[in-house]
Amino acid sequence: MLKLIRKSLVNKAIFAFAILLGLVVIAGIVMIRTNVTTISLTTFIALFTIMLVVLLGLFIFDVIRPINHVVTQVRNLLTGNNYKRVDPMSIDEIGVFTHFFNEITRDLEKISYDVKERRRMSSELDIASKIQKDILPKTAPEAPGLDVVAKTKAAAEVGGDSFDFLTSADGNNVYAIIGDVTGHGVPAGLVMMMVNTLVHAMVSRGLTSAKDIMVNTNTLLTPRISSRLFMTSVMLRWDKVAQKMYYTGAGHEHVLIYRSKTEEVEAVRSGGIALGMIPDNSQIAKEEEIKLEIGDVVVLYTDGITEARNQQGEMYELDGLVNSLKKHGFRPSAESVFDNLTKDFSNFVQEYVQADDITMIVVKYLGPDAATQKVKLTIATDESEGEKLNKNWDWV
Known about the structure:
Blueprint (H helix, E strand, L loop, with lengths): L1 H5 L2 H25 L7 H38 L14 H43 L10 E8 L7 E7 L5 E9 L4 H19 L5 H12 L9 E9 L4 E7 L4 E5 L4 E5 L19 E3 L6 E5 L1 H4 L10 H12 L5 H16 L8 E8 L10 E5 L4 H4 L8
Parallel strand pairs: 1-11
Antiparallel strand pairs: 1-10, 2-3, 3-4, 4-5, 5-8, 6-7, 6-9, 9-10
């Protein structure tokens, strides 16, 4: 019975009225039994005042006081001041309101924490993205006889694709390397940066053969990363003196070669095994020569291109890139070849929401007597969702 009364302000009011009515009835009975037929006005006022004071006290204690506690904290919350949760003092409507206020403030604190945590993570991702972009090359060494264009675009703040250009310690060789770590995001980005650093270390130690560079990089990388992470890669070595090109694969995509004489495209398997998969890849890695004639074009790419899909769910695939290179390999510069490959890819995928990192390097052999060309590099950033709408895919 008492719990039923406490659960509702209406029940409390009815109970108070019942008590008041009961007191009046009791007073009437007492007066009849004691033969008191009238009472003075002063006595009536005194008794009435006492009852009002008692009822007012109960109202203040049970209604006004708990409401004030909650309203004070609500006001602090709305004005941005420090607030605290309120211990429920009853189980009626005021108690329900108090519980609601406590739950709301808990949710607000959780949301506030999540917002701060996301801001922190976003800030750290921005820092990681900047570090990664700083590692990617801003310039490339001269490669006499070659015209080179390289571009990369990450699918997230931190990507797993990589490319780089280096010069051997003796200055006689120029290296171009492209790589793709499994997945994308921070873990892939960390592996990409490790490989980049190790390759630079191997070259600075005086290693010349692309095979030796890849084998030693793998030896140091494998014990330092998770077995679920690995990086496929291809390294080109350009012998500036002999004007010869070599490649060493580490389980990467095909090396595409456009032959200017026949206007055909060779898709050569890069071979090897991905860096980080086995401790010793020295028996698998090989350095093979790519015999070039003037006008020939070599294309390196990551699977972000061949596995991209259009609005109908169709994949671009290797054939799409090969056919595009067959159409445009004749063009006079690496940049014109690159731009037309990009145009064909963009026309296929159209308004493509990029799901994987995309990187491509185009190398055109101009011959030993051609003027040395500056390597053209682009490191693009991913766009916001709003910028992607109604816009065909591009590098920028």
